[in-house]
């Protein structure tokens, strides 16, 4: 049985806390329910929005269609070989709960991605990443339902076309598939990534020396860092990093570096550099600024926040002001990471 509701407030279903409404709403708990949805012919032509934890969405308006809240649960070890364990999780599994399950069982590969908000089904959408790791490094395949036909299809790694905060689901396949389950290929032998951000220092503060390193220690360190640095959406509405870190040519980087010697950058290829968007925004004087009820976070300039009562359009208007000033000062165009509805 499917419980299709009308005029549902999305306020508690998006981490910005915007009070947008869904014309129709359905929550999907099982693969079978997802199939049933496609037998409801009256909804076939209705526009659809797939919702996970709402932690990467910016609603600028009500959604005049059907919001499909993905809540399929279940974590299952499918099989293992000498080096890997294959773990399948339902789209609605809370991402951090999956990380904890893997850490507790000694399955390595996603410990650096601890405490990223949202669901497992949304994780491949933007190839979630943090602290030097992206899910594509342990991704095996996913199951998705074609929104036009209701048919299930498997996407392997190559077919997902992962990139930095990118996948095929944000481009050619945008809005066309409902991801129902994701399978990861985790490592029995951990490869520790501790050179990114403050992981090394935090481990030292925790009294963990290199010979005591474990995936649990890394997960704990990442949790500590994230709790101290990132605003908790339960306290202040936000969707994490609003913009992606821009990639520019090495030539442009060198030219800018003569004018801004402190500008940080990381090589992403022989000819390209990635520049932290937060640094660029901070240099334009935006850190901690309020514009009405919208603002730029005081500790992390990459995060736009709803101080209470802001609308999605106010956040979007602030975002375009930020974009313009970064472009005017550095000649670099910032692109949003957040999905705008
Ligand atoms: C405080 C904070 C910190 C964050 N830190 C990070 C970080 O370190 N790294 C990072 O990569 N991200 C980060 N994010 C962004 C966010 O957590 C991730 O993008 C997460 O994967 C979004 O999951 P969700 O379930 O909330 O997706 P939603 O916001 O519900 O949806 C995001 C997009 O995916 C689509 N979608 C959702 N579920 C499905 C599905 N089952 N099938 C098809 N499409 C679907 C939606 O339609 C939408 O386009 C952060 C966000 C916050 C609020």
From TrEMBL:
Metabolic or biological pathway: Cell wall biogenesis; peptidoglycan biosynthesis
A matching Pfam family: MurB_C
EC id: 1.3.1.98
Cofactors demanded by this protein: FAD
Molecular function terms from GO: FAD binding; UDP-N-acetylmuramate dehydrogenase activity
Family: Belongs to the MurB family.
Protein name per UniProt: UDP-N-acetylenolpyruvoylglucosamine reductase
Organism listed in the record: Larkinella terrae
Gene assigned in the entry: murB
């Amino acid at each position: 049985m499917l419980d299709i509701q009308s005029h549902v407030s999305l306020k508690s279903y998006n981490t910005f806390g915007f009070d947008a409404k869904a014309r129709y709403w359905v929550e999907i708990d099982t693969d079978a329910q997802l199939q049933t949805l496609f037998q409801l012919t009256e909804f076939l032509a209705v526009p659809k929005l797939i919702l996970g934890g709402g932690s990467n969405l910016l609603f600028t308006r009500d959604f005049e269609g059907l919001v499909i809240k993905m809540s399929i649960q279940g974590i299952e070890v499918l099989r293992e070989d000498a080096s890997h364990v294959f773990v399948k999780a339902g789209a609605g599994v809370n991402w951090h709960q999956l990380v904890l399950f893997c850490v507790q069982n000694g399955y390595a590969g996603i410990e650096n991605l601890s405490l990223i908000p949202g669901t497992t089904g949304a994780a491949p959408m933007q190839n979630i990443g943090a602290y030097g790791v992206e899910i594509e490094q342990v991704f095996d395949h996913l199951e998705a339902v074609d929104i036009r036909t209701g048919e299930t299809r498997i996407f392997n790694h190559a077919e997902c076309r992962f990139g930095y905060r990118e996948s095929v689901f944000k481009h050619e396949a945008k809005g066309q598939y409902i991801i129902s389950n994701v399978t990861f290929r985790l490592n029995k032998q951990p490869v520790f990534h501790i050179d990114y951000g403050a992981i090394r220092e935090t481990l030292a503060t925790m009294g963990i020396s290199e010979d005591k390193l474990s995936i649990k220690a890394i997960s704990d360190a990442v949790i500590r860092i994230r709790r101290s640095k990132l605003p908790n959406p339960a306290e202040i509405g936000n969707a994490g990093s609003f913009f992606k870190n821009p990639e520019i040519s090495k030539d442009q980087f060198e030219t800018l570096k003569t004018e801004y010697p402190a500008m940080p950058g990381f090589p992403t290829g022989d000819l390209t550099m990635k520049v932290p968007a937060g640094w660029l925004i901070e240099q334009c004087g935006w850190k901690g600024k309020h514009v009405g009820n919208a603002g730029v976070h005081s500790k992390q300039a990459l995060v736009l926040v709803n101080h209470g009562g802001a609308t999605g359009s106010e956040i979007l208007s602030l975002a375009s002001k930020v974009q313009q000033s970064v472009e005017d000062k550095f000649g670099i165009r910032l692109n949003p990471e957040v999905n705008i509805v």
